[in-house]
Amino acid sequence: MKKKKARTSGFDTEQLRRMKYASVESKLNALTGMTAFTKEAQKSCKKRGVKYCPAFSSYLQ
User: Fold this and answer.
1) Is the pTM of this model over 0.85?
2) Is the dihedral of CA 53, 57, 36, 25 positive or negative?
């Protein structure tokens, strides 16, 4: 049986791709924005009963 994959947004993966060559200040601004976005996405997914896993969670650890 196929295992369900956690949902991630295109925003997360696109930001990670861009951050590869960004300056430190740009990376900080992007991470701040991604954190705010993730909080909103988690609230939305929780309301719908869907598990949300941000694409950059492993990047931060």
Assistant:
1) no
2) negative
